[in-house]
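Co-fold these.
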Amino acid sequence: MSRKPNSEQRRAQIVQALLDTMAEHGYEKATIVLIARRADLTPGLLHYHFHSKADILLALVKALAAAAQQRYLALAQNTLDADQRLKAYIDARLGLGEGADPGAVAAWVVIGAEAVRQPEVRAAYQHAVDTEMALLRELLSASLAAQGKITANAHALAAALLAMMEGTFQLASAAPASMPMGYAAPMAAQLVRRFIDAEPPA
Amino acid sequence: MSRKPNSEQRRAQIVQALLDTMAEHGYEKATIVLIARRADLTPGLLHYHFHSKADILLALVKALAAAAQQRYLALAQNTLDADQRLKAYIDARLGLGEGADPGAVAAWVVIGAEAVRQPEVRAAYQHAVDTEMALLRELLSASLAAQGKITANAHALAAALLAMMEGTFQLASAAPASMPMGYAAPMAAQLVRRFIDAEPPA
Amino acid sequence: MSRKPNSEQRRAQIVQALLDTMAEHGYEKATIVLIARRADLTPGLLHYHFHSKADILLALVKALAAAAQQRYLALAQNTLDADQRLKAYIDARLGLGEGADPGAVAAWVVIGAEAVRQPEVRAAYQHAVDTEMALLRELLSASLAAQGKITANAHALAAALLAMMEGTFQLASAAPASMPMGYAAPMAAQLVRRFIDAEPPA
Amino acid sequence: MSRKPNSEQRRAQIVQALLDTMAEHGYEKATIVLIARRADLTPGLLHYHFHSKADILLALVKALAAAAQQRYLALAQNTLDADQRLKAYIDARLGLGEGADPGAVAAWVVIGAEAVRQPEVRAAYQHAVDTEMALLRELLSASLAAQGKITANAHALAAALLAMMEGTFQLASAAPASMPMGYAAPMAAQLVRRFIDAEPPA
DNA sequence: TATGAATGAGATTTCATTCAT
DNA sequence: GATGAATGAAATCTCATTCAT
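Predicted complex below.
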């Protein structure tokens, strides 16, 4: 409201700088000075725009969650059939599109670990997970229903798929050399497909 | 005359204290003082037995990897058939047995994030991942072969399954409230089972 | 709007405080807290202006070397004849003028010992020695030439004179009670004088 | 007296280890563990044979001073004439013989710096300097007298020569690359020779 | 808004010395 | 004599946060 015009831009700039710095150094070693340097700002200014370093992290978690939500909305707009939407979703998350921003992926992994100990981060992380779970469940239920299958296992299947996604991020960030390239999206799609095919009819 | 060395037990004690402390506070906030207090030792003694805090972490990574390897060996001894061995493996990793040590799981998640930025941790983490991948691939290949299926996709399937496991640990540690309980092991088993069933014959 | 930088004066202040503290306690016992106290600053601030304690030492070495260089320039400006310049130089270094800052002399002695083990200090120390050697050689060559003597031994003579100077500093700092007072400058001048007189003509 | 047979040998072993370690790391960084390792002993044993680390240093200073004294006695035994004895002394101190143990030279330089701040070391250092001064003065007086010269300046000349020696050690240890090789002994001898030659007759 | 110096709490690490065995 | 673990004090360094300008 009373913020000067460039405030929002500054905040975004700082949040992005935290993302970049965290992907490289982790959260604790992403010092205010390093973040400021990356953002091409001065340390003092970061505390003008954010109350604390933890606040920047929180803003980042929310920004990443919002970006995911955004991708969902873009996806939901298309009036594709259920199977195509599910396929598109998996590709968006695990395909080359996601791999195109390894920094965000690494930052997300670091955030996941911070969620283990920081209650506020955990809350934001859980909220993002809940949102994603709801979306996934919806996509899977629709796909199951379209095949005339029971939807009772949609929840558990969504959880397994989400875990696979999070684990893929983890492994891509921490052990890229050990994983076969490009395996994730097609294999996930096929696992889901065959699971659905084998489900009993409704 | 001379004093009896007790380094090995002290080191184990310290490593265990790091595990406990890390599970609760993360790596950076697991200070030497906290670790020492948990181990009921003085801070100086930690640096007598380990060169640095990073060294304790490295020892922990190796200990956890060795423990996993140990579970594999125990498993391999049993002369179960391929399917039973695969099922037992998944249960051991994702079932209640694994859940019985949530501390180790949380520590592993934190280690995964540290691997993003610490080269030496990354190397040890990757080694553990490689070992696990090799084991998983062997189990899956055997199961596929036993069904008379092609084994070409064993590698990608192993990667997907490993990702699902790592992601399950992550979600169990950081967003336990959001996940359906006990979903992981049976759902993973079923996904793999149906995938294998749908593979073409060799 | 923005704050005016004062780093240069702070750095000089800190370097001077290290000099004072080192002259009294040596390098290792010149702790950050002691230096800060002497400079009337907080310990943290020292690390804001210098990366490490070793960096302060390096700055001190360079400052002392620069001060010596400065004295040379002031000396060179005077258009005295060769003999007078040489005499003035020896007096400036070994006479009461130099003795007027026993702190700097003691600090220089301590630096010489640190140069034995710290490569970066050694490099800076060597550079100072090289500069001094070049100057001395020039002064001696001019004096020899003015007398019509060969200048082949100017280098070795310069080395001997420099050694005498360094040793005088050492003895003045570590064993002042054992040395005859005020012997250094006149005796050095006379030794050089008689050496030159006895050199063969060019 | 009541010490066990190997005590003296152990002490010598430890003192030598301090010398070696100090030459490389300086006094403060020559830790008990490093010294013990160099002596192939255990840390605890060092404090059995010496009350404190400072005590080992003191023993080292005395050992080095005694070794110099020893060289004097060996020298004095020879019934050379005054000039030859002086020449032999300078060679023994500054010639290749001395350069053959650069470790002892470096240790002596470090001791000189420690003498700036440690009273007990200073006392021992001064005693060594006094002894050396007395010897030098005697040699110079004898040489002057043998030439029929006045001996009034023997003290100041001895001081200058001692300073040159100490400075040579300093420069050889801290700036070896900057000094002409082998300059020290012949140049010192020549400086003294020409000084004496130019002295007035008694 | 913006700067950058300044603070102070706290972290890791070092190490002489002690001491039970 | 000998060992090596243990202690505790102290050192360097880090860094989020504050604040005068």
